[in-house]
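Hey team,

Filing this mostly as a record. A colleague (T.K.) asked me to run one chain through the structure pipeline before their review meeting, and I want the input and output archived in the tracker in case anyone asks later how it was produced. No errors, nothing strange. Just documentation.

Input sequence:
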Amino acid sequence: MSQAQANTTAAPTSGDIDPRTMFQRKRAITLPVLKMVPGKTRWIGVMGPMHQGKKVDDQKEAATLMRAVDMYTGEEGLFVCPKVLQNELNEAFPGEAYVGRGFEVTYTRVPEKKYNLCSIVEVTVPDHIQAFIDKATKDALATTAGKGGSKGR
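Output structure:
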């Protein structure tokens, strides 16, 4: 191939191709926070066990988080777990057996109190969401095993 031919086969410009079709997503490194809004129901698929987040305020404890997907919107994020949710899931699903399952969660604000009521119902996980959860869980385990897994390959 001549130098002139090599120059004509350069990488496509941004106007030539849609990067969403060019790159396959491997895993999210940063995640948005999925918070509950009192009175609003959220359907979440649990992708990882609960864990302590980083302490960001001297006046408050670090939040307990779990990696989850909002099964209605498809948004992946860190779900903020209030104490009642932590206690109920740990009691109903010993040994972190809640991972890979789906839940309908609704908070209701109790006027003049410092807490919310929490309704938790286990729900079926749609096949396409279950496939996403299974892949993310498998990828996370592979990344943590053997000092980082495939090193980005």
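Quick notes for T.K.: The first helix runs from residue 3 to 8. DSSP finds four helices and seven strands in the chain.
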